[in-house]
Structures are given as structure tokens and as C-alpha cells.
Amino acid sequence: MGLWRHKKRNNDLMYVDLSVSIINYKGEQSYMFLVTDVTNEIHQQKEISKSESKYRQLFEKNPQPLLLLNKQLELISDANQTAIDYLQLNKDQLVQKSFSEIWGDRIAQNIDELIRCLDKDTVAKKEFKLELGSHEEKNIEFIATRTIVDDKDSILLFMFDITDLKQAEQRTIMAFVEGENNERERIAKELHDSLGQVLTAASMNMKSAQKELSEIKYNRKEQFNKGLGFIQQAIDDTRSIAQNLMPKSISDYGLVSSINQLILSYKETLNFSISFTEHIGALRFDKSIELNSYRIIQEALTNIIKYAQAKLVNIHIEMKNQQLQLIIRDDGIGVKLNENNSYSGIGLKNMRSRVSIIHGEFSIDSLPSNGTSITVIIPIENV
Q1: Confidence class of residue 265 from pLDDT cuts 50, 70 and 90?
Q2: Is the CB of residue 128 less than 8 Å from the CB of residue 120?
Q3: I need a surface site. Which of 53, 89, 199, 361 has the fewest CB within 10 A?
Q4: Same domain, 184 and 102
Q5: Total of domains in the chain
């Protein structure tokens, strides 16, 4: 018969579920009424309804762009008006669509990684670039947390535009790296023009005196030759330091020649072999791209020497789809993840900073005892 309200003697309302059935009682057809008190259940439903209504109001009126993701179907189940306006898409373009449908596999992969982090933490965050409906690219930090909506496991995604912050960060990094490069160039020039020339002059003077060594006693002659050797070693070391600080071969001969010289300088002291393959030939790029690409490879090799315990390293460079691609692989012990499920370390941070300066993308793939692969993709125009 349905749900009935009943006022008790103390004027409290109670809710009862009343049902009736026909039975045979003592040989006669009778009606049996079953009365069930459902007051608590009704109050709970009302509280849930109020909670969901409040949640819906908070969702819709939130000044922050919000997306609701159906965890099971991996589809966007809802978007508030702020998100619709910010993304410059209409609701039909968002709701019941997957991230890969709207933004492609790269963004979908980033979202998958973000959601996987929720297996360990109640809140997870990740930042990456997203293209708006106007085709403008923005740096967005996504913050994800689990929730239940309409009895379904869902993911609530907060979106924070950090474009201005990233641009300010990039300007700071660029100023720092430019200052570092200028200082390196200054020191290298000083070493070459001042100390290098003094040492060369000293070496020439001592070599000119070698003609008169026959008049010097044997033990003094040996000391003289040792002194000359030390000066020559100082000249070589000064040249090597100046080259390392600011490789002149980059501006003179380009990236490929500089990397070959870098590898040659390492080969004499390393206990692993380096192979270098390239498909760019004599192509030249912007000075900043060439110098930062060189520094990235230099930093990667330094990390491998310090930590990787590798036997084989491969460096590969090629131009593909108007992009310069750098790949550095080793067969070492791999890089450990930190507590935030990401790779850290000063060397990797330096590489990321340099990639950011030249508007590139940096990725690292590493497994314990299975080596490390670093990939850098740099957009190139007018090549």
C-alpha cells in the first residue's frame, strides 16, 4: 500500500511502510497488514539528499574550474560552468567524453598517472600543458581526490592555471642560465687570454733554453725537463677547462662536432663504451638550443659516470617533424623513484631547467637494473 506518515501521541512523526496480503486464516479469506517502521531510513535519505544538493551547489558555483570523472568508465561525468568557460568548450564537448577523445593520448596518459597516484594518497597533483578550445595552450596543475556521487566512485579534478607562474619561473631560470653562461664564457676567455698565454710564453722560453742543456748537470737537466712537462700539462689542463666551461666548437662547428669532442674527452677515462648516432649532419640551430642541448648531454653523461654503473651508453640525435630529438640511454642500475613517485636529483633538475628554457619536453624512463632512457624533444622553426 506504500509509505504512510503517522503522528504519535507525543506529536512526533514516524514513517511506516504498509503492505497487505490475502491469507487463509482458519478456513476464511483474510487480510494481513504488515507495518514496518522506516523512519530512520527516511531521515537518512533526506540527509543524503541534502548533502548531495549542497555538494551540487558547491560544485556548480565553485569559482575554480572543476571536472568530475567517472572512475569506472574513465569518462568526464560532469563539469561546472567555470570549467566550461575556462576550457572554452561547451558541455556536450566535455560530458561523457574521455580525455583522449578531447585532448589526445598524451593528456590521457597524464590523467591516468595522476589517478594511479590516488592508490597511495588521498590527494594527488600533476601539472602539464592543455590546449583550450581557442587552441591556446595553458600550463595547468590538476589536483585529484576521490569522492562518491550518485553512489558511484568518482574523481574530482581541480584545475589551477599556473601559466603566469611557469612563465615567471622560466624567466628566472633563463636569467640564471644566461648569467651562468656569461660567467663561464668570461672565465674561459680569461683562462685562454691570460693564464694560457702566460703558460705558453713560459713554455716557449724554457724550450728555447733546451739548446744549452748540455752544459747543465744530469740531475739538473732532469729537473728542467720535469718543470717543462708540468708547464705543458698546465697548458693542456687550462685548454681543457676553458673548453669545458664554454665549448668554442659549438659556435664554430655546431652540435655534432662538439658532442664528438665531448665523447672523445670522456673515452680516455671511462670504463664504459659510448656510441653516438645522429641524423642532423651539418644542420645548425639557434645558439641557445645548441648550447643547452650540449649541456643536457654533458649532464646526462656526468650522472651516468657517478651513479649508473653502466657498461654501454648510446646517444642519438635526429630531426623529426620539425623537432630536434635527443635520446641518451644506458644499461646501468636505473634511477630510483622518490616518495612522490617521480625522479629527483640535482642533475635531472638541471636538465629539466635547460629543456624548459628552450621550450622543450623532458621525459625519463627507468627501471631497477634495466637502465635509464632520457628523451628530450625540442621544437625547431625555420630549419
Answers
A1: confident
A2: no
A3: 53
A4: no
A5: 4
Considering the domain architecture, whether residues 239 and 280 belong to the same structural domain is answered as no
Question: In the predicted model, is pLDDT for residue 280 greater than 60?
Answer: yes
Statement: residue 172 has pLDDT above 90: no
Q: Is 377 exposed, middle or buried (0-12, 13-18, 19+ CB in 10 A)?
A: middle
| pLDDT value of residue 142 | 92
H/E run at residue 6: strand 2-7
- Which set of grid coordinates corresponds to residue 380? 625547431
Closest CA to 160 of 67, 76, 60, 95: 67
Amino acid (1-letter code) at residue 4: W
pLDDT 10s digits, 47-69 = 655 556 666 777 788 888 999 88
Q: How large is the average pLDDT for residues 178-185?
A: 68
- pLDDT category of residue 221 using cuts at 50, 70 and 90: low
Angstrom distances, CA of residue 114 to CA of 99, 218, 383: 13, 75, 36
**8 A C-beta contact, residue 144 and residue 165:** no
Q: Is residue 56 part of a domain?
A: no
Residue 148's contacts (CB-CB under 8 Å, 6 or more residues apart) are 154
* CA–CA distance, 316 with 328 (Å, rounded to integer): 7
Q: In this structure, how many other beta carbons lie within 10 angstroms of the beta carbon of residue 313?
A: 25
Q: Is 179 left (phi over 0), alpha (psi -120 to 50) or beta?
A: alpha
Model pTM score: 0.51
